[in-house]
Design brief:
globular
């Protein structure tokens, strides 16, 4: 069955936070959740753009300032949420940068890795205890088809070096980290016996602001041709995230994406991923590195045991076996 926004169940009484909700896929994700009755927190770098998005969306929304390039801002946003809400049902880690003009984040990290991965890693860790006892709660982390281009080690050198920052490799490395984080988080949540599930999604190709920003000059003709023939509008590109967040028939640990034309467009379904993304030993090392770099250490119920990085991972669900 072709899953669409009409399949999103009633979200009344649920609180959702969507990062990067002022435009593109994030705005469409927030719009559908609000239309189905959720109270949606729009986490945006620009409060002005966030308020404009809230006015477009309607429904029950609030705007919180979040600059993922600053760990101080991440902590302030998390504190704002914690000061107002005792529970969080959905966290959609959607925001991202592609080929940014600046070299490093406020904290000295390569911009792709710092914003796309470390900012979301920190935000999730600071909010997770609002979710772990909430039935049906879900963390959805948005990756990309470009995760396959994420070559090289996911280590501190990659996190801090701005060499090749304008390349698809640097962007792909950050999206590979997103996918590995989603899988490792699911493993740890499951081991702890929490009510929260972690899933990953990717939008395929969509002509959002990421493509129209600071793309290197040499990539623009390729991007333009690819988007013309393969891309889908933002409302369609948001469907994998929406399904991962709201379709409780999709198991935790799943990775969803468009189902047609090399996963560039179409209804959401199980997505493929690179062999590197399923390396559980690297997932564990990335987790420990991310805790060290952000200073955010996750706490789980006592049932959580030390992870065994020797297991295998199902290519669809990410489950170890």
């Amino acid at each position: 069955m072709a899953w669409s926004h009409t399949h999103v169940p009633d979200q009344s009484g649920r609180v959702a936070l969507v990062t990067g909700a002022s435009g593109g896929i994030g705005l469409e994700t927030a719009r559908v959740l609000a239309a189905r009755g959720a109270h949606v927190l729009l986490a945006c770098r620009s409060m002005e753009r966030g308020r404009a998005a809230a006015a477009r969306i309607g429904g029950s929304t609030e705007v919180v300032r979040l600059d993922l390039a600053s760990l101080d801002s991440v902590r302030e946003a998390a504190a704002w949420v914690r000061g107002r809400y005792e529970r969080l049902d959905l966290l959609v880690n959607n925001a991202g940068v592609m080929f940014p003009s600046y070299r490093r984040t406020e904290d000295g990290f390569e911009a792709h890795f710092g914003v796309n991965h470390l900012g979301h890693f920190a935000l999730t860790g600071l909010l997770l205890d609002l979710m772990t006892a909430v039935p049906g709660s879900r963390v959805v982390t948005v990756s990309s088809l470009a995760h396959r281009a994420g070559l090289g080690a996911l280590d501190e050198d990659a996190a801090r070096s701005s060499s090749g920052r304008r390349s698809l490799t640097a962007y792909g490395r950050s999206k590979l980290a997103n996918l590995m984080f989603a899988r490792e988080l699911h493993h740890r949540l499951t081991t702890a016996g929490t009510a929260t599930a972690s899933l990953a999604a990717h939008p395929g190709l969509s002509p959002t602001g990421l493509w129209h920003g600071d793309a290197p000059r040499l990539l623009r003709p390729v991007a333009s041709a690819g988007l013309r023939w393969l891309a889908q509008p933002a409302d369609r590109a948001a469907l994998p995230s929406l399904r991962a967040a709201t379709d409780l028939g999709v198991p935790g640990g799943a990775h969803l994406g468009p189902s047609k034309l090399f996963e560039s467009r179409g209804a959401p379904g199980p997505a493929r991923s690179s062999r590197a993304s399923r390396d559980v030993a690297v997932q564990d090392r990335l987790w420990k590195l991310s805790e060290g770099l952000t200073g955010v250490r996750y706490t789980f119920p006592p049932a959580l045991a030390e992870t065994d990085p020797s297991g295998t991972v199902c290519p669809v669900t990410g489950a170890r076996g």
